[in-house]
Amino acid sequence: MSLQESLLAGLKKSYPECTVKKIDKDNFLDIHIPSISNAKATHFFFNTPKSGIKVGFYCRDEDFVKKTVKKSKKLESYSQGIRLTNNPVFETPELAVKAALTLVELMTKEKVKKEAKPKVKVAKSTPKTSSPQTKSKEVGLPPIPKVTEEVNREVHPLSFWQRILNLFR
Question: 4 falls in which pLDDT band (50, 70, 90)?
Fold first, then answer.
């Protein structure tokens, strides 16, 4: 069984209705999956050079591509269709089929709209006590005087570490 035949077999398990447009003629295995798009000149592909396997969806309909890419950040458009972001390369047919199924799932899902969380207003209530409330006094630190050192008749602020050392003198 060739590499492209094993990729087709893996994809047919999930999409038995798919039809092969091209297999074992060159590096591209082209498969039409009607559930993605019924339009002509659209197909799912596996690019199978010796360096690895890439997956994508060929489509010339720019509106379809734009609408589909908006469904997920994991999808990106390229000059002739849609592919996974950063166009990853897969080393085994099993990984490539999993990626292909993920690509199909991302393309066919509905964009999830973020639900607006209901705003809940919490009424501020003061606790009722029988004894009068006393406010605790906040103890503030005295202002830190600016420590300076006279050098060559000019006044320069001391560095942080010099101030720390002065505390221990």
Answer: very high
Look up tokens 């309909």; give the residue. 61
What letter represents residue 73's amino acid?
K
Distances (CA, A) of 24 to 4, 7, 28, 72: 6, 11, 8, 32
- How many whole angstroms separate alpha carbon 21 and alpha carbon 1? 18
Percent pLDDT > 90 in the chain is: 46
Residue 81 above 50 pLDDT? yes
Q: What ranges do the domains of the chain cover?
A: 3-108
Say which range, 43-47, 80-84, 105-109, has the weakest mean pLDDT. 105-109
Structure tokens at 61: 């309909």
> Which pLDDT belongs to residue 115?
44
Q: Which of 88, 108, 110 is nearest to 99 (CA)?
A: 88
CA distances (Å), 115 to each of 106, 118, 120, in order? Answer: 20, 9, 15
